[in-house]
Write a structure and sequence with these properties.
The chain has 227 residues and is of the alpha/beta class. It is built from 7 helices and 10 strands. α4 crosses α5 and α5 runs parallel beside α6. This is ABC transporter ATP-binding protein. GO terms for molecular function: ATP binding.
């Protein structure tokens, strides 16, 4: 084991060109370093490349050129299977719409997280209850998601994202469907997770959200600028 933990993300000269006619250069020569424990907000207008960046960081899309190290592992050289395993091990995803299954309980939804390696059922339930405790949802484990407020649903989705103890939480407009009270609750939760050492990257167009992050990075026409 190296005695220094590698940075969580190192992008070097990453470009993503969609081969349309004419081609779209959605990411242009992007460099980005995210260290363990960083809390980074990505801000930028519609069409600027935020989803492309998130898909690239989340190993859902591949750069056309450049290098992407995730936890010290060069991902661009990996095959699909290895990328899927790495994603399951290192990354938790949080989306604007919570993607909870309506006919399953809160605990079951969290247990259904796609975690690489799989755990025995008993172990998964214990992990799910721990994750729900971490997000302050222990009192609702047997509820169906339909009985929860939007903010509570997002907290359950965050618990699901934490099931595999990821190195990195990638969040795409996590408060986009929430009123200001629920937004505040989710941001407080992010602060708590950050204080515990989790690395967070949040795509947002809400100033209130980006103001909480330690770093703000603006994306415009596929070009990143640190603020
Ligand atoms: N599969 C694709 N093929 C061709 N062009 C694409 C594709 N996906 C995205 N684009 C283009 O790449 C650019 C960046 O798109 P992207 O979805 O990353 O922007 P965004 O910042 O996430 O936008 P929004 O905030 O509206 O979701 C846009 O010009 C978009 O039209």
């Amino acid at each position: 084991m190296p005695d220094v933990m590698p940075d969580v993300i190192v992008l070097d000269a990453v470009s993503r060109v969609f081969p349309t006619d004419p081609p779209v250069r959605a990411l242009r020569d992007v460099g980005l370093r995210i260290r363990r424990g960083d809390y980074v907000a990505i801000v930028g207008p519609s069409g600027s490349g935020k989803s492309t960046l998130l898909n690239t960081l989340g190993l859902l899309d591949r750069p056309t050129s450049g290098s992407y190290l995730l936890n010290g592992i060069e991902t661009t050289a990996l095959g699909d299977g290895a990328r899927t395993r790495l994603r399951g091990r290192e990354i938790g995803f949080v989306y604007q719409s919570f993607h909870l299954l309506p006919h399953r309980t809160v605990a079951e939804n969290v247990m259904l997280a796609e975690v690489y390696g799989g755990h025995p059922r008993r172990h998964r339930r214990r992990r799910a209850l721990e994750a729900l405790e971490l997000v302050g949802m222990s009192h609702r484990v047997d509820f169906p998601p339909g009985r929860l407020s939007g903010g509570e649903r997002q907290r359950v989705a965050i618990a699901r994202a934490l099931m595999g103890e990821p190195a990195l939480l990638l969040c795409d407009e996590p408060t986009g469907n929430l009123d200001s009270g629920n937004t505040e609750a989710v941001l407080d939760l992010f602060d708590g997770l950050h204080a515990r050492g989790l690395t967070l990257l949040v795509i947002t167009h809400e100033d209130e959200v980006s103001a909480r992050a330690g770093r703000r990075v603006r994306i415009s026409d596929g070009v990143l600028t640190e603020e």
